[in-house]
Amino acid sequence: MRFAPLMMVAALAAPLAALPPAPAAAQIPPPGAPMTFAPLAQRLLPAVVNIQTSQAAAQAQAQRRPGAPDVPQAPPGSPFEEFFRDFLERNRPPGGQPQPNRPQPPSRRGQSLGSGFIIDASGIIVTNNHVIEGADEINVVMSDNTTLRAELVGADPRTDVAVLRVRPERPLPFVTFGDSDTALVGDWVLAIGNPFGLGGSVTAGIVSARGRDIRQGLYDDFIQTDAAINRGNSGGPLFNLAGEVIGINTAIYSPSGGSIGIGFSIPSNLARNIAAQLRDVGRVRRGWLGVNIQQVTDEIAESLGLQGGARGALVARAQEDGPAAAAGIQAGDVILRFNGQEVREMRNLPRIVADTAVGSRAPVVVWREGREQTLTVTVQELPAEAAQAGTPTPAPESRPQTLELAGLGLKVGPITPEARERFSLRPESRGVVVTEVSPGSPAAERELRPGDVIVEVQQERVNTPAEVQARLEALRRQGRATALLLIESAQGQRWVPLRLAAPRGSPG
């Protein structure tokens, strides 16, 4: 912690002229932070609701240890929950068994609490899927304590968005989605919700980061905020200062279970489309491209001569029956733009494709053979079990065999019937099989394994060990530092940039 003041001193010592100009889109109010959020909170609170769900607690009862006392229901995470549990533990009968001839309480129902917000005066409410998942009864508590029974219109576990409907006697106050793409790091935000069952609570903070991937799924693109979010806030809205919903509060990072200032919200530009589909048809139709992709590294970008550095999504395989293959997209292409949107890195592509209307024709800009090319793909609907993208893992090790590729730490051989049996290769596999990998070699650094098949070298097919060797020697003569290999393993295909170390005895 000693270096924190040093960093502060260094920042203060920097001349003002060295600071970058503020982005044109940034809005910096002259007096600085608002004096109060009260008028905004007062306007927004009526449109934010508490959600109470329940389900039969038979499973929870079965998991409870024999003789353990029933714990009265309290909001999850509430201090009362521990109080009731401690009290009943102290008053448990001897031996831990219920008292004889004592009437047993009726089977209770598990309860959970969450938040949501009204997006239509007729009673349409948006929340998180995990708030209502598995519930057989959903009640919505309005800001005036009116309780309404809710029905589930539709839910999408992949993005954790759900839509409910209540049937009020009069039009309800509602809020609208804003444009989450205009939210800048440092912008003020308000979170309103139902933490620990306490009802309409308002917290303020800023946008801490954009585009967070918290490993929840293919479509992760979270807004990070330091506005306090706790258990029960799930499904509640994150507002900008215009009173627009720019996020749905969904998750927190916390070793203790309470807020430490790291919360995550689904951006409104993703949630809006999902909520609209759930409301209209009860399910989500996602676009599908039919490719396996991987991240473009600096070495891969260099190998492909990709201008502008590492960017885009590298196609490892275009599925034969998929729309990408039908449009002419090939293994080795780097997808740079899809339907007019830039693909900055691999994980951007699944979300962009998923948001594209099924049946639409989308232009795709790819990097191929040293230049950009534009193709047109007809987007299909994502099959129920389709994997949009993935990074294959290496095949297990096997026994070694034949010819050495000098300087790479590889031995390779032809795909013979014996090799197919020894390495459990697929009948359709074509190329050159890796038979041995030397520890500490460039090949080992890239986690190549015996049994991997080299399909292409620098985007050219190879069928014999001699062809592999010839391609590598040609790249060395061109002064290339790396060679790009298309590797096939039991899990699929992937591109591997392999450092071209000089063979032993060679100059340099």
As for the CATH topology of the largest domain, it is Thrombin, subunit H
- The computed structural class is alpha+beta
- The helix tally amounts to 12
> Radius of gyration, Cα only, in angstroms?
29 Å
The average pLDDT value, as a whole number, equals 78
Shape: elongated
Show unreliable segments.
1-20, 22-30, 58-91, 385-401, 504-508
- How many strands, which pairing sense, and closed or not: the largest β-sheet? 7 strands, antiparallel
Q: Between the first and last Cα atoms, what is the distance in angstroms?
A: 45 Å
Descriptive overview:
By secondary structure, this protein is an alpha+beta fold. It folds into 3 domains: 38-59 and 108-284, Beta Barrel (Thrombin, subunit H); 287-381, Pdz3 Domain, CATH 2.30.42.10; 404-499, PDZ domain (Pdz3 Domain, Roll), CATH 2.30.42.10. It is 19% helix and 31% strand. It is built from 12 helices and 27 strands. It has helices at 3-13, 38-44, 58-63, 79-90, 129-132, 268-281, 298-304, 323-326, 348-354, 417-423, 442-445, 465-477; strands at residues 48-56, 109-120, 124-127, 137-141, 147-156, 161-165, 188-193, 201-212, 222-225, 237-239, 245-252, 263-267, 287-288, 291-295, 313-318, 334-338, 341-342, 361-368, 371-378, 380-381, 404-405, 410-414, 432-437, 453-457, 460-461, 482-489, 492-499. The strands form 5 sheets. Strands 21, 22, 23, 24, 25, 26 and 27 form a 7-stranded antiparallel β-sheet that branches. It has a 6-stranded antiparallel barrel with strand order 1-2-3-6-5-4. Strands 7-8-9-12-11-10 form a 6-stranded antiparallel barrel. A hairpin with a 2-residue loop joins strand 26 and strand 27 (492-499). The longest helix has 14 residues, at 268-281. Mean pLDDT is 78; it is low at 1-20, 22-30, 58-91, 385-401 and 504-508.
